Automatic annotation (TrEMBL):
Record's protein name: Fused nickel transport protein NikMN
Phylogenetic placement of the source organism: Bacteria, Bacillati, Actinomycetota, Actinomycetes, Kitasatosporales
Gene Ontology biological process terms, A to Z: transition metal ion transport
Signal peptide extent: none
Stretches with biased composition (Low complexity): 233-269
Species annotation: Streptomyces malaysiensis
Length: 384
């Protein structure tokens, strides 16, 4: 659903640019509360993974394909504010390096694909999680439903933006019907990818899924103290092992009139162990597995993606909203159209471009989120 240059007029493009800039500014502040030392690098990986999976267009109807938007996936994995930033980084890299999505339309694309999808998806996700039983399966199901609805929501948002600033004189009703219709089908693919990804991470490391916090956590186990009263059966079992040593003691004991001892009770029976926080597990294995999956998708699987136009391209051609489309300002980029210039082999060219894109998105995204995390740490240290 990358909107190219020329679809939306200048005033509305500027207005959506202001909205996008404001959303990014708010998200930068909100992401400070969502990121910690483990999730900041993972957020960069989420951006790189979304970039890779967006290269995998899947067929949804005759002559039409779709691809992941990623707002729902990012919001659930790393939080809504961080999710907006993840998708924004992806859109920026695609526009600058790969000539995908217009530069003058960057505000439109961020508003539509980053802000709308993330906000809608996370609101639906949290609603389902609050109302449904707190189980791991609930997180997966909520992810599916949230992602499914977020895609037609983005289609509706685009139609509204086009109604305000479209450059071609077309029937908005027909555009609305066509956009929503095809993007409901695309939403099914988005939902499947999102649910499978979230479900896989929840199954391995639910503590790393932002949306699963407080849902998949196991109840706290409190072990009985030696001084705590036990059930009658437990007392009998506990005293039985001590009976043998007592019987083996010599019967020539001290006189019963001996003064009571004043020694302190032993440490084992006088102190209740304090709860110790479980050490945080490293996310390194998850990070490497995610990177391998992203590189595999972008470098290999992308070659087998559908070559049909995506939903917006198809609707734009059929309804005539692409009459004033303009050439991309970065059309001469060496990576334009997801291929490396001067490499004739399409498989090698596309795979290499995908790998470069994953690396660039990972570097930029990780840099942004690590800086955000450090600013939070600096702010917290200043308050101490």
């Amino acid at each position: 659903m990358h909107v190219p240059d020329g679809f939306i007029d200048a005033p509305v493009s500027v207005a959506t640019g202001v909205v996008a800039a404001g959303a990014v500014a708010v998200s930068l502040r909100g992401a400070r509360r969502e990121l910690d030392e483990r999730t900041a690098p993972l957020a960069g990986l989420v951006a790189a993974f979304i970039f890779a999976v967006q290269m995998l267009n899947f067929p949804v109807a005759a002559g039409t394909s779709g691809h992941l938007l990623g707002g729902a996936l990012a919001a659930i994995l790393v939080g809504p504010y961080t999710g907006v930033l993840c998708v924004s980084v992806v859109l920026l890299m695609q526009g600058v390096l790969f000539a995908d999505g217009g530069l003058t339309a960057l505000g439109v694309n961020i508003t539509d694909m980053a802000v709308v999808t993330t906000v809608v998806a996370y609101a639906i996700f949290r609603t389902i999680v609050k109302l449904a039983p707190h189980r791991r399966r609930t997180v997966t199901v909520a992810s599916f439903v949230a992602a499914l609805i977020s895609v037609p929501a983005a289609a509706i948002a685009f139609t509204a933006i086009y109604a305000l600033g479209g450059t071609a004189d077309v029937s908005i009703g027909k555009v609305f019907t066509a956009m929503v219709g095809v993007h409901v089908l695309i939403g099914i693919g988005e939902a499947a990818i999102t649910a499978l990804t979230v479900g896989a991470v929840v199954a391995v490391r639910p503590d790393l899924v932002y949306g699963a916090r407080g849902v998949t956590a196991r109840p706290l186990e409190i072990r009985d103290s030696p001084l705590a009263p036990a059930a009658p059966g437990a007392v009998a079992r506990a005293e039985a092992p001590a009976a043998e040593p007592a019987a083996a003691e010599p019967t020539t004991a001290e006189p019963t009139t001996a003064e009571p001892t004043t020694s302190e009770p032993t440490v084992a029976t006088s102190r209740t162990p304090e709860p110790v926080a479980a050490p945080r597990r490293s996310a390194r294995h998850v990070w490497w597995a995610g990177l391998a999956a992203a590189l595999l998708c972008a470098g290999v699987v992308s070659f087998y993606a559908s070559a049909s136009p995506d939903g917006l391209e198809k609707v734009a051609h059929d309804k005539g909203i692409d009459q004033k489309a303009e050439d991309h300002a970065a059309k001469d980029s060496p990576l334009a159209d997801y291929g490396v210039k001067d490499i004739s082999d399409a498989r090698i060219s596309g795979g290499l471009a995908g790998v470069i894109g994953v690396g660039a998105t990972l570097a930029v995204g990780s840099g942004v989120f690590i800086v955000v995390r450090r600013r939070r740490a600096t702010a917290e240290s200043g308050r101490v």
